[in-house]
Amino acid sequence: MSDESATIGKGLPEVLSAQLMPKHVAFIADGNRRWANERGLPAELGHCAGKRALLELTFLSRKWGIKVVSIFAFSTENWKRPKEEVSYMMCLFQELQDFDRYGTRISCIGDRSRLPECLREVISSLEEKTKCNNGLHLIFAINYSGRFDILQATRRIAGKVRDGKLVGHEDEIDENVMDEELQTNCAEFPCPDLVIRTSGEQRLSNFMLWQLAYSELFFSHKNFPDFKEQDYVEALVWFQRRNRRFGGP
């Protein structure tokens, strides 16, 4: 057993309570390009630095017993970026196997139809290879839109009603039915408890709009490549001090 795998579930910082840890943490990983611009570097190197940061954050999440981590890696609006940058990001996503460590399960959500065929093959292969893993569940949102996720789920429900696969009173089409049709149905805990957005921006940017109904939102001024262990601890301490009401008094 390697030193890294031996630490999984151990080494929780003293300021954190194991009982109050979120089950699902989502990252809106913003600021890769700004990080690069501040250093006079091309945007591509910012995304590479962001990947290194994510590798560290997923290791820490696994080490601290978090069950699910999702990362908003590429939105449907990101196609508007310079062609060279988009091409580099598509190539970078083909390195998802770097996250295949120590029992990690890897899933991808989003519209794959526009992704390069070689990337679709990498995604399908990794999902199949890791589907029975019971460690950290890492979900990449690539070419993802929260609105489109809801729209597609609604269409699937309507199709099941039309085909007689979903029968009964209309009141039986409830939140559970919708949850089953959203792309996050791949996760044991589909709704993030904590959302961390970096770079100082304070918006959701069309990410998991249904799933974030009762999530706690933490905004960091740091760009994603600069978001380190101490920043993650700060976000988790903030989360554990929150009084989560889930819409109640």
TrEMBL record:
It is an enzyme of class 2 (transferase). GO terms for cellular component: chloroplast stroma. Its EC number is 2.5.1.-. GO terms for biological process: plastid membrane organization; polyprenol biosynthetic process; response to cold. Pfam families: Prenyltransf (PF01255). Keywords: Transferase. GO terms for molecular function: ditrans,polycis-polyprenyl diphosphate synthase [(2E,6E)-farnesyl diphosphate specific] activity; magnesium ion binding. The keyword Transferase applies. Belongs to the UPP synthase family. This is Alkyl transferase. It comes from Sesamum calycinum. The lineage of its organism: Eukaryota, Viridiplantae, Streptophyta, Embryophyta, Tracheophyta.
